[in-house]
């Protein structure tokens, strides 16, 4: 219509243009709807799975490694709840009044134990090149979703804050993943390795019936979490590194445990592969999960929008640093989850008189404390 | 428990990570000189103290129907009536909205209705007794009628009594705590400086504020936190994490030495517990975050879960005083502070804090208040801070506080004093709401009923041992060096693996 036209020609074109425009508007609306629906459905597709992961339910999980043996006691063992009561280091009853069930106060030496565990673990992972971090514990719910959690599902594990779009974190994985949201990192920065300390909050909805008293399943706890952003080709080897660090930490504390390669039905949607460490808890008479190490490949980074720019060999591209970006891979692994560690230490190191020995590596971080003794009543 | 000396982190770990240059021994503390100071940074001093209890919003109360209370403070109405001049003056001095006239009126009404109720009950009992004997049918019928009338009258009166009692309770709970006679009367300009320690540091180079310092040292991230969580959130990184750990571990060891029992607490609590401590979880501009779909809230201070530990209990006298040092994260909405353009750590939604809390006998609370402020002053002196301790004036006391001392430390980068701690004596305000009593021990000769003397309410006190973000501001700004590095004060070094200095990172 830009050229010179006869009025009737012009009129015909105007008509044509109008029809095309209306058709377009309708189609574009359809396109948006389709795209949204496609997006919604496709986002439900779980991450792909490492070829070595066993297929099936929890009974199909494979033990990769076993360290140590169950401790032998020549007296009746107590569980951590009983031990803690006599040592006057917990209070669950007052917490039930003040807050509700599955809450607790730590007292006396349990506080020193928490501090000691955090300080020791932090020093150990810093030695291994992790950057220490503390994080917000209130985050936007969109960030929770981008990490692969469902803040508003039925039986959600996530607490929401009234009157806001914010939630409490269930793990520092969320605020750490979010640090580099919507960013393009330069390749030279990778790998980024963080050790993040935070309190974690979980509703434990759907776990109401599980009659485990004490610290095994609680609504609030302290945790030190390792998180790695890396290049795709390296994530498998960083996964191995993370599980090795965990195994070193727990061996140093003298725990007996098995590392399990979790079967397909037990992986969360984000995890390409997941190793859990299950430690022997003699008072409970079973193994209990004390940590989890997941390789999420690009599942989280595609949602959080975290890319990196591979460095260009100088000869191939004149446009400096403008090569295509790729999504990073992300991994996360528990360095220390305080309540489960307290269970392990109390139950494994209990003595006949009800006292508990502190493992050597922790003592310098607890002012030299060697033993927690029952209080004279 | 045995006194634990906390040497948190051995020297071995520090060398590998931070690539700090070897410390020169000549650093010394910056020399001091007098310096005209800007007025103290008072904005929202209440952030660290119990906020004034706003009047409960009795919106549709024209019919006098009070909201059924979830819990009741054990208020001594008779004492209020017998001391109404003092109570009235106190309300005025504190600029409180409490309506004493209404309370007294409701109390009188309630007493009268109670008397009527008692009288009617007596009459009804008399009628019931009369009906036990042998009676003429007509006599019996008359008594039955009488009994029925009395019963109906009673039901109505008893309903009135309940309504009156609820309304009385609601109004009376607005009355703030009494005030220590030495507390200055008036607004913030009337507060009195009790003590000054040290002098403002002198710098022979332009000082930076903590925000600037932190950026260059790569120890904070506010930008990422704004994306992930919102404004007034932050990540601590690298040496700031060690600083937080070091401060907590050192402070904890210091207060344990002074007889405090260490504690970590739930950070989610029932909203009724928040109210009983004197806070308003659901008021407009509330400082309190609520959890969706529950009656639970996030704590703004460990004072709340610690006060709650002994809720609805009778403690034996021999247990007192109970002294706790509670570590927790704290969450505050800072609603109403949106405009205050202070960047950085000064006002944030989430922070770590170690709080001291004492339950004691009434006669001892004044002296424990002195002990708490002395501990705070010792701690902050040890870290080499310059500060003043302020006896807060009546208009700046929260409703629970009988007396409140704030410590305001010099923050050279901000160019003013900022509140780093608060120590309050709440006498029996919280304990009457939380239901915490003790049984005074009986001298063996006076009472045959062993241990059954009357109970009394305990007194409660709370004081900040260490509020991490404000302490970080003080340390960064006071110990900054010309090259942007920051010296770590001596007492903290053993708790930070021997770290002596935080240095700017090579970019």
Q: Which labels suit this protein?
A:
heterodimer, A: 377 residues, alpha+beta, 24% strand, B: 507 residues, 8-stranded mixed β-sheet, 3-stranded mixed β-sheet, 17 strands, 18% strand, disordered N terminus
Description:
The complex is a heterodimer of chains A (377) and B (507). Chain A has 377 residues and is an alpha+beta fold. Chain A has helices spanning 7-42, 80-87, 93-98, 109-127, 141-146, 173-179, 235-252, 299-304, 338-348, and strands spanning 62-67, 90-91, 105-107, 131-134, 138-140, 166-168, 183-186, 192-201, 220-230, 257-261, 273-281, 286-295, 306-309, 326-327, 329-337, 356-357, 371-372. An eight-stranded mixed β-sheet of chain A has the order 1-10-11-12-15-9-8-4, with helices on both faces. Chain A has a three-stranded mixed β-sheet with strand order 7-13-14. In chain A, β11 (273-281) and β12 (286-295) form a beta hairpin. The longest helix of chain A is centred in the N-terminal third of the chain and has 36 residues, at 7-42. Chain B has helices spanning 14-17, 77-82, 84-93, 100-130, 137-172, 210-217, 223-228, 239-257, 271-276, 303-309, 365-382, 429-434, 468-478, and strands spanning 192-197, 220-221, 235-237, 261-264, 268-270, 296-298, 313-316, 322-331, 350-360, 387-391, 403-411, 416-425, 436-439, 456-457, 459-467, 486-487, 501-502. An eight-stranded mixed β-sheet of chain B has the order 1-10-11-12-15-9-8-4, sandwiched between helices. In chain B, β11 (403-411) and β12 form a beta hairpin. β4 of chain A pairs antiparallel with β3 of chain B.
How are the secondary structure elements laid out?
The complex is a heterodimer of chains A (377) and B (507).
Chain A: H1 7-42, E1 62-67, H2 80-87, E2 90-91, H3 93-98, E3 105-107, H4 109-127, E4 131-134, E5 138-140, H5 141-146, E6 166-168, H6 173-179, E7 183-186, E8 192-201, E9 220-230, H7 235-252, E10 257-261, E11 273-281, E12 286-295, H8 299-304, E13 306-309, E14 326-327, E15 329-337, H9 338-348, E16 356-357, E17 371-372
Parallel strand pairs in A: 4-8, 7-13
Antiparallel strand pairs in A: 1-10, 2-3, 5-6, 8-9, 9-15, 10-11, 11-12, 12-15, 13-14, 16-17
Helix pairs in contact in A: 2-9, 4-9
Chain B: H1 14-17, H2 77-82, H3 84-93, H4 100-130, H5 137-172, E1 192-197, H6 210-217, E2 220-221, H7 223-228, E3 235-237, H8 239-257, E4 261-264, E5 268-270, H9 271-276, E6 296-298, H10 303-309, E7 313-316, E8 322-331, E9 350-360, H11 365-382, E10 387-391, E11 403-411, E12 416-425, H12 429-434, E13 436-439, E14 456-457, E15 459-467, H13 468-478, E16 486-487, E17 501-502
Parallel strand pairs in B: 4-8, 7-13
Antiparallel strand pairs in B: 1-10, 2-3, 5-6, 8-9, 9-15, 10-11, 11-12, 12-15, 13-14, 16-17
